[in-house]
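Q: Got a minute? One more chain.
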Amino acid sequence: MYQVPVASVAKSLTRKDSEADGMPAAHEILPATSPRPRASLRLIATSDLHASLMPYDYRADRPNANLGLGAIALQIAEARGEARNCLLFDNGDFLQGNPLADYAATTRRRRAHPVITAFNTLGYDAATLGNHEFDYGLRFLSGVLADASFPVVSANVATRLGKSASRDETLVPPFAILRRQIIDHDGHAHLLRIGVIGFAPPQIAEWDRNTPEGSIQTRDILAAARAWLPRLRACGADIIVALAHSGIGETDPEEGSENAATALAALPEIDALVAGHSHRVFPGTDFPASPAIDPVRGRLAGKPAVMPGHSANHVGIIDLQIERFTCGPRRWRVVDASARIGQRSADRALSTPALHQALAPDHRATLAWSRRQLGETAVALHSHFATIAPSAALSLIAEAKIDHIRVALAGTRWAGLPLLSSASPFRAGGRGGPENFTEVPAGPLRMRNLSDLYPFPNTLVTLLLTGAEVADWLERATAVFHQIAPGSVDAPLRDDAVPSFVFETIPQLSYAIDLSQPPRFDGQGSLVNPEARRITGLCHGGHPLAATDRFLLVTNNHRAGRARLQDPAARQKVVFTDGARVQSVFSAHVQRKGIVGAPPERNWHFLPMPGTMATFPVGPGAAPYLADIASYRPEPLARDEEGFTHYRLHL
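A: Always. Here it is, folded:
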């Protein structure tokens, strides 16, 4: 495992100082024997890159100047050029997300991973781990990180938990101290010690528990921070930057919170913070103002913070004004700060030749791999309306999964139970924008199309569920919809606060969704309306599901982990898992059958609400497929600022 003992980390990152122990309080007036040197320190951050490196859309097989780290490389260079003292960080989720990542993970390589090549080329100073770094397994991750010329830190991901957080055997060093020479405003050089600490969502311990090579263990973000931050300061850090692959949430979150960035920023040791994971933008209009969140100035709990979107669509920039003090072990302090999101210029090329040259071999190899034809599809496979009507794309994914498990369970004691398979539209608009839809026309089906239809390297997991648990599984999927009052006119159908991937369908079942009811579960899967039921008429093979009926549900390791977190008392039984990745199962299914795809069976629909109309946003490619939702008599309305076209649906 890529593991460095904590003791050796501390030893290698510190040096002997003659400064006295102790630190003056923030309000203490220090003796001004001479003017205190001041300097500027710029922090540049990317987050949730998802292997988006080149200005190329591998799924569509065409250049796209607005995509990738290459498209913002010059912006990073310019931001560096504007500041005397500058550091560049990545905030996690960099290894997974497109055909380039899938290619790099499925072939034997002698070169460094393309993401690491890009980071080394651009001179990143440090990075942390996100949840998707673990998608391809720990052995793969260890090999990737071995080529990094910068420290990768994470304080709450461990191979073994100790009696306290400070005794955990962390997978990578919990923190690093970057010793950099800076130039103050008067042109004098100083040594600055920048502490960098990282955090990941603790849920990954459950999300990746069913991987065949074992799993990692995690700590609550705040518990780990409270243990390691004082040690980081004691090791000599003048300034501490937190790389938190975590969303912006409450100031007093529950233990194990997935979105702990606000509470983390409130800890006194932290001077600046990079948030991520939720693919949102901060500072900006994504977040309402509150006493702890200033979305205009970019402050979380009073500390400068950024969340730079996803897929290299934004760069976060924090400018710190720091001042030199003459006593205490902490020699520099932040006296002023600003935070902003850098915007790309659309009227000029933004790539750097060095990055293009470094990635050229990986780019060529990915193109060849992604263009391999695996079979054909008899119908178009798209996700434009996959959350509001049965989808041929989702039906095909469910079919491939269920066929694999049917063969695997043949002859076992489970073979006689009804077999179900869930499927979710991973690219269905939302925060990914109006281009974030899957669209594969009828005809050749290539490797790049499979990565589009199923972009995650999840492994298959088969669960034993009761009829009541199956019903709740579908109830959680309906959290993506607003409650619609009968007789409403143009009420928004989709709840933008809930990602589209929360939605799932089970093609082997028939049912209706009653939108007049409030959601039984919220977007996190927590029970919020115990009396509410949106799923009605739930049947299997024409027979209503009884609460005590038993079913096998084919899902993936991530969904199985989410189910355990959402309902720990349910104790869903894992019947079978062989470590098979859904993408590999999908590819083998297409190659075996040759021609796949069929119009979907109308197994589910919204319960009719006469006289009621709702609106639904779609991307620019949806118009040719309006026949899929003809029963809702769709009417085009207006296009919004993001580029979504809104349709009126007659429910």
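A: Residues 1-33 have pLDDT under 50 and may be disordered.
Q: Perfect, thanks.
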